[in-house]
């Protein structure tokens, strides 16, 4: 009697294989924006027979739009397909001192709805009310929610964010995900800024960078190998807690470095140098005042020296190659930026370029789009050998 050997079961089920192919088509179309079916075949490696029903389904779902024929070097012009960014919507939520803002954007980062309100204690309830109301009838296209908070985030929980009332870990991510039924990512707002600058700003041409954000506090977002790095407990980049003296300890969620060199601290010093209204742009005012006031010029030198030490400390550990200045730090004029670059160059162990970030307030939005889409559409695994 001859034993019948049953072929091993494929590690990828037929349904999963189809989904992998579908995701590969979406990814290729999203990247190319406009392409022919022949180009889609080349990019995905899928046969025309496999591709045809997938394309038809994606047109029905609204992912792809059929356009007129494009130019062709030989033969008949080919019918073109265009990726529809409105097929993928994300919600970007920012928790800020005293307010919460929610933006609905497509996969290009184009905002289609926005709302801002006072920040109340029940953050989860506010988010879960805002998002469906803003998305409206397009709710089926919502792919994910990204929440930016000024603190340490880990596993969807936020802590050390006293400005928004989150000092102890609060699992806002899990709560929102359970209510809305879409992937939710929660991260430090500076990490989202770094992701945004890497996706669509001053860091789009490099795979490693450090974004230094100076506002009410001082924080950093670190990207290495094209990915935001969070650390074991989500506290990577909390440079505001860098001790200045052996006895330094953070208190009430505020670190020693940011207590002395944040925008708030600089604003207080500017008021002392030039009594009057508290400046809304303290670094810009300090630079302006330094041109005529020796005391302001001396203090500006102290600020630049402190920021340079912080940057060099980071360079010694992670060697990002490029440092982007965000928030109040981006208000340095060209002369002050050149001085900061010189101080870093003199002390850093590796070449480090210091630039201004360019997206401003839009950095968080672009980072949120990148985060939310990545959470909704996981990396496409390779197809099994022999797949058509």
Structure in words:
With 388 residues, this protein is of the alpha/beta class. It is built from 12 helices and 15 strands. The chain has 3 domains: 15-83, Orthogonal Bundle (Arc Repressor Mutant, subunit A); 88-193 and 366-376, 2-Layer Sandwich (Nucleotidyltransferase, domain 5), CATH 3.30.420; 204-357, Nucleotidyltransferase, domain 5 (2-Layer Sandwich), CATH 3.30.420.40. The strands form 4 sheets. It has a 5-stranded mixed beta sheet. Strands 13-12-11-14-15 form a 5-stranded mixed beta sheet, sandwiched between helices. Strand 11 (209-214) and strand 12 (218-224) form a beta hairpin. The two termini are 36 Å apart.
Shape summary: elongated
What's the number of helices?
12
Q: Summarize the helix and strand pattern as letters.
A: HEHHEEEEEHEEEHEHEEEHHHHEHEH
- Oligomeric assembly: single chain
Helix/sheet category:
alpha/beta
* Mean pLDDT across every amino acid position: 85
Q: What is the CATH third-level topology name of the largest domain?
A: Nucleotidyltransferase, domain 5
Spatial extent as radius of gyration: 25 Å
Distance between the termini: 36 Å
Strand content: 15-25%
Uncertain runs are: 378-387
Q: Specify the biggest β-sheet.
A: 5 strands, mixed
The CATH class designation of the largest domain is Alpha Beta
CATH superfamily membership of the largest domain, which one?
A: ATPase, nucleotide binding domain
Helix content: 25-40%
